[in-house]
């Protein structure tokens, strides 16, 4: 590993795992730590699940330490490219032309859990809100300015909508949440949504102003603090912030609330590729929540050392045994048994030096 200069930063930022680190005091952490320590970073979308699993894993294995810096998918993938972390948490996978940037060679994708990306809003007088994909695309492309716009009214017959101006909240950092949310907009209404999809999109090209926040929690704060605001936020942060969330029209024409069950239905409707990539966005099924985000742990197939590879394999193995059982309590859908079986089998592909 060439992370001697950067790992102290990872440790300093891993505030949410302070209790885990305290439990692992004898194992050390950061650069020069024991072989039982693995370092990861990336997606804030999967933070709640990762923290729950890491805490339980370390309690069961006191000599082990797993440190996860929840920042963004883009940050995690960048750190893995330069081998400054042992694994990256991400809600989006590298594009083919990005793979050559990963200094450690071929990657393996280990899916973990899935969860809804909520469309959270702040309208105290509107207790229930329904939004079609086309209406959502118009809102986030700033073509709809007021909450009582005819397009929103059409989705919500009989609901008294205020004339409040709409404030769009979005991620300011490179984010898998942005990638999956904009992928949905691109699929359902490419005419109104013209920014494409990716970890970042050019919000400044829109005919108006949006508000950017870092991590899912940052967007949640924008929505929570601004009447009339709307933003895309993971279910865990939306729940913790007690945000209102809209029902979104799915591929079957049903308006579905963002729930763990709806995310699970979307995963069941998605095709799993041999490399364990899959896309639950706008998946078929009457009960599928259409803006469901997958998550992965990205690792190098060829590990840099015996100790790191062994420790990482043990942690991944734990995710696919006890870990999946913790998903629902943390606000995520566990993987179907068929996917868990494939992921477990893929562990044998890890090449660990003797």
Structure, explained:
The protein is 33% helix and 18% strand. It has 354 residues and is α/β, with parallel strands linked by helices. The protein has two domains: 7-113 and 295-349, Periplasmic binding protein-like II (D-Maltodextrin-Binding Protein, domain 2), CATH 3.40.190; 116-268, D-Maltodextrin-Binding Protein, domain 2. The strands form two sheets. Strands 1, 2, 3, 4, 6, 7, 8, 9 and 12 form a nine-stranded mixed β-sheet that branches. A three-stranded mixed β-sheet has the order 5-10-11. The relative contact order is 0.17. The model is unreliable at 1-34 (pLDDT under 50).
Task: Name a few traits of the molecule.
single chain; 354 residues; alpha/beta; D-Maltodextrin-Binding Protein, domain 2; nine-stranded mixed sheet; three-stranded mixed sheet; 13 helices; 12 strands; elongated; disordered N terminus
CATH superfamily of the largest domain: Periplasmic binding protein-like II
State the low-pLDDT regions, or none: 1-34
Oligomer: single chain
Strand content: 15-25%
Gyration radius over CA: 20 Å
CATH fold naming of the largest domain: D-Maltodextrin-Binding Protein, domain 2
Number of domains: 2
Report the CATH architecture of the largest domain.
Answer: 3-Layer(aba) Sandwich
Give the structural class: alpha/beta
Q: Which percent range fits the helix content?
A: 25-40%
